[in-house]
Amino acid sequence: MYNLFVTAEIGAWNKNFYEIDKSRFLEYTSEKISSSFSKLTRTKTSTLKSLPCLFAYEGSTHHVRIGKLTSVKERGRNLLIEFEFHEGAPEIPFAEIEKIAPLLDIRKWEMNRTHWAVKDEDLISRLKESNLINANLADKLTSNTTIHQLPRTRTTSPRVTTVQEFIKEVFKESREPNRETFYRGHSDKARYKLEPSLFRRDSEGNYIYLDNEHILYREMLVSNSADFESDEYTLDRLVRMQHYSLPTRLLDITSNPLIALYFSCKSKFGKKEGSTYTGEDEGEVILFSIQKESIKYFDSDTASCISNLARLPKSEKINIKFDTDEADEADEKIEIKKFNDQSPVKRLIHLIREEKSFFEDKIKPGDLRSIICVKGKKSNARISSQSGAFLLFGIDAVLDEKGTPEIHVSRIAIADKAKILEELDLLNINESTVFPYIENSAKYVAQKHSFSKSKQPTAK
């Protein structure tokens, strides 16, 4: 494996340190590797430091350098790396790297985006085979590299196998009067991350939907305009689109822990052997503790700013410059004005004013990159039955799997799913009540009262 760093900041590699947004970490990285490094423990940081690195600039005109990491630290929403180049290693023209790009798993459009990828390729061997470094240097670099297997993710989450055990763990969680708790269920705790469906990537680490967000939004309205006639805000439309399974920048959460438990159990059973299931994927329920004063409602200005990003083309979103959010407090008004004077931000303000004519051009840069908890309108039976709320993700927003100062995260591992679903059914938590539509009720009733061999009378 090796680290690939690409930046648009010319001259960045002339220093021995660099800060990169966490959202750009593990882009263009396979799912297997990405899942392994989703939580940066000390062991995983050591693994990253042991890997050789390729340092490059966006485009194809600058040389690339070979080096290694000396330090990796988390700094808020950024990762601070310190590095050094290998003594005697040449600067390599990118045109030479481009010739072997497929062998290094460098993809067609990858050099046009600032990011940090971890590639499952032997960088030093590939460079040696292509005569880009000599054998002596290759041997030296290889001897200085410690080979690590992918680190395993350990969990200290409590593990439950019954509804009673689950409720007991929920009540163990500390409750503060100024905070509210929400829940989310994952049927496979090893696979699913705390990210909205819009941000999901394929097995090779490429975004599946994100680049076409504005098209998804408009095509949904074109195809089903009558269904959205009653929606006042863009957020209302995104909630409805989420309900119909369109990828959006919303992540569903609920105030009802039993609903989250149901979702953590409703799939990934494994193989049925007799009356039991073997080889099931363990689920989990994630608990989010959020300051009550930071929770927004459907008519929030901040929610309007973030939700209307769905209507901006990618070409405009990527041209929003956030350099101003590190400004001194004394210059805050000046920096906010500069930020709002950008052409893409003006376009965003125009979209916001379609739903809020009074909206002023005073968007704070940090708001567009934040994650906020929103309570939307209960505009359909499903949202109402699931006690729904949402986390709304801004540009390049990443929710650390360990939580943030604003959003505290804890987890409960879920096993023996089929048994728990039977217990939830006794509490009237089932497909008919969680998805309250007549077709789901019919499916549930038919399944519950289906004829089976176990119910046949014994022959005498």
Q: What is the overall shape?
A: globular
What's the structural domain tally? 2
N-C termini distance: 68 Å
Radius of gyration: 25 Å
Largest sheet: 6 strands, mixed
Low-confidence stretches: 324-328, 453-460
Supply the number of helical segments.
17
Structural class: alpha+beta
Strand order of the largest sheet: 2-5-4-3-1-6
Percent range of helical residues = 25-40%
Average pLDDT level: 85
The total of beta strands comes to 16
Oligomer classification:
single chain
User: β content, as a range?
Assistant: 15-25%
Task: Describe the structure in your own words.
The protein is an alpha+beta fold. It has helices at 31-36, 42-50, 94-99, 123-129, 135-143, 163-172, 213-223, 234-243, 257-265, 301-307, 314-317, 332-340, 343-353, 381-385, 417-426, 431-434, 438-448, and strands at 2-7, 17-21, 52-57, 65-75, 78-85, 115-119, 159-160, 179-186, 250-254, 271-273, 276-278, 283-291, 296-297, 371-375, 388-393, 407-414. The chain has 2 domains: 2-143; 159-296 and 370-429, no CATH class. Helix content is 30%, strand content 20%. Strands 2-5-4-3-1-6 form a 6-stranded mixed β-sheet, covered by helices on one side. A hairpin with a 7-residue loop joins strand 3 and strand 4 (65-75). Helix 4 runs antiparallel to helix 5 and helix 9 crosses helix 15 (417-426).
